[in-house]
Each structure stands twice: as C-alpha cells, then as structure tokens.
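Table S2 (text version). Query chain:
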Amino acid sequence: MEQISTEQWNDVVTELTVIREAFATLIYTLARSQTLRLDEFDAQLRLTASKLDEPDIAQALTQFGKLLAHNVEMAHLDLSLSAVRKRRDATE
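Corresponding structure-token output:
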C-alpha cells in the first residue's frame, strides 16, 4: 500500500473542506426553500452507504450525512431567528 506524504494529505483535507463548504451552501439554500425532507435524505444516504464495499467509506458517508443534516437544522434555526428579529424590529 502506497504511503501519502503530509503535503498530499493536506491537499486532500483542503479539497474535502471546500466540498463540505459547497454542500453547506447547498443545504442552506435548500433549507431556505424548504424543499429538503431530512427523513428522505437520511434514508437515501443510508441506502447509498449500504451499497459501498468499503465499510470505512460507508461510515464516513454516514457521518458526513449527519453533518449535512445538522447544517440543515442550523440553517432552519438561523432563518427562524432572523424572521423573529425582523418581526420584532418591525413592531418597534
């Protein structure tokens, strides 16, 4: 098995961080439009993970999905708080 250098590993981590941020933006957009159902997302994610031959990758995918779901919940919370603030400001 080939060893990767620290520089290569750092490049992979950087790419994954960019991908995560892109997904977070996508999820935030979906949360704003309220078109994403978390239960459907979770079911699809588990189905996809179960088809993978590599258990480590399946576990990573499941964990990533949990992170995405958390981002959706936080985006909904952020939007709810923003709406409350706007209503409060409008009444003051």
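Notes on Table S2: Helices lie at 6-33, 38-50, 55-91. Residues 24 and 67 are 9 Å apart (CA to CA).
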